[in-house]
Amino acid sequence: MSRHAKRRGWALAGALLLCSAAHATTDETVSCHVSYGGATTIVEARPTASPYTVAPTDFGSYLQFRIVFRTEPADLASIKLYTYAHHKDVDGRPPIHQATYAYPPVNAGRYGFTGLNHAYEPRYGLVLDYWCELREGISK
């Protein structure tokens, strides 16, 4: 095989690898480990373009947890975490905890990018604990 044929072969192989990588996408998920009432549940969220349509997850009768994960547009890219009190006699859901993290987040150690958080519901003295991490996977 000539030297030029080898170069063309390597160039073709490189182009195929680049093309293959362009079709693979990073599939990121925010995974929050939420503890309430002695049980831990993982609540996950993928990026959304419609943050107002993201529904909260119920914990017991009086608490809700919500993740809003935005990667675009760049100036609004963030991860927002909300904990709400859910009282039937109150209009809406009063927030009892809200945290915002830049995207991409910086890992804080053992408890992901959030550290360990505690949200207190004052009427009934309830506590919801959580920590979150950014998980990455490749999908084709």
Task: Write a compact overview of the structure shown.
The chain is of the alpha+beta class and 140 residues long.
Cross-sheet strand order for the largest sheet: 2-1-8-7
- Stretches where pLDDT is under 50 for at least 5 consecutive residues are 9-25
Q: Compute the gyration radius: what is it?
A: 21 Å
Question: Approximately how much beta-strand content do the residues carry?
Answer: over 45%
SSE pattern, N- to C-terminal: HEEEEEEEE
Assembly context of the chains: single chain
Number of helices: 1
Topology, element by element:
Elements: H1 3-23, E1 25-36, E2 39-45, E3 57-59, E4 63-70, E5 78-85, E6 95-102, E7 117-121, E8 126-139
Antiparallel strand pairs: 1-2, 1-8, 3-4, 4-5, 5-6, 7-8
How does this model look, in words?
- The protein is built from one helix and eight strands, in the order αββββββββ.
- It has one helix at 3-23; strands at residues 25-36, 39-45, 57-59, 63-70, 78-85, 95-102, 117-121, 126-139.
- The strands form two sheets. It has a four-stranded antiparallel beta sheet. A four-stranded antiparallel beta sheet has the order 3-4-5-6, with no helix packed on it.
- The protein starts with a helix and ends with a strand.
- Residues 9-25 have low confidence and may be disordered.
Which short descriptors sum up this protein?
single chain, 140 residues, 1 helix, 46% strand, 15% helix, alpha+beta
